Amino acid sequence: MNEALKSFLDTFHIEYEMDVALSQKTWIKTGGTCGCWITPHDVTQLTELCRWLYKEKLEFEVVGQTSNMFFHSTCSPTVVVCTTRVNDYSQEGDIVTCGCGTNVMRLSKDLMEQGYAGVCGLTSLPGTVASAVVGNAGCFKCSITALLQSLDCLLPDGTIKTYNCKDLLLSQRSSAFKRGELEGVILRVRLHLEKAADMEEEKCKAARSTQWRKLNQEGPAKNLGSTFAVLKMRKNLRNITAFCIAYMGNKLRIGSYRRLLKKGLLRLYGYHRIDAYVSDKNVNTFVWRDEQAERMFPIYKEMMNKIYNHATLEIEEKI
């Protein structure tokens, strides 16, 4: 471990661990060994830490809950900064200021209970507010970026810049941060809130969205949600055949439409060997079921690029 870094962390009382197996830290229990896993407890510690790392030109990764990140076993970063403890938030009028590591689910549930609109679809969305901004994540017509007023970002030169929503150049499941057009560490996120017209209806929407996710998506363990973004299926005979088989099988009560579609696609494209690693509920969800999953993931990506046009990864892959 870099002795200067150790001295800095000790001086500022910032929590850290050395030589950490990423499989003990990451969402899907994968990855190599991290030289130093650092956990600042507030925005001040995060700011001073990252400013020092930038100044010393030390490479580092910033992560939240890692619920959208796949670390390969070959990935052994020198320094990882985890923001999950930077999770305080405060409210002044209709503005909520959140630490970058604030949990989206917890925040959304709290705001909904207070009678605010625009969060009912986020009450079962994993991840932090910063990661939700970077990935422009959302579901059920709700998103953090739709509420975004501004954010504070620590730039590589050590200054702090405030961006508004327009600065992020948002696109479907993406932003200027995700595309690498903007650099830096998001420190705080400010959300502009409005009271819901019908609180009971908001609660009903939240309940329906949670139920839908249970029926149509895998649980949170061993997967990273949707693997690809902006999928458009190719118009070819194999895809049409798979759709017809799934439709007829569902009508005849042979099985669920989604499971039959998955089975048909895997057979028709010759990828039935990865059946156990593709969700029965959504072919766009890969399941890290066991130690063989890392070897199966490139095969899964190959298959998805044959089924879909320009399949673009939504998850972040660290090799």
Automatic annotation (TrEMBL):
Domain FAD-binding PCMH-type: 30-196
Native source organism of the sequence: Xylanibacter ruminicola
Pathway where this protein functions: Cell wall biogenesis; peptidoglycan biosynthesis
Gene field: murB
EC number, UniProt record: 1.3.1.98
Similarity comment text for this entry: Belongs to the MurB family.
Name used for this protein in its record: UDP-N-acetylenolpyruvoylglucosamine reductase
Superkingdom to which the source organism belongs: Bacteria
PROSITE patterns found in the cross-reference section: FAD_PCMH
Catalytic reaction annotation: UDP-N-acetyl-alpha-D-muramate + NADP(+) = UDP-N-acetyl-3-O-(1-carboxyvinyl)-alpha-D-glucosamine + NADPH + H(+)
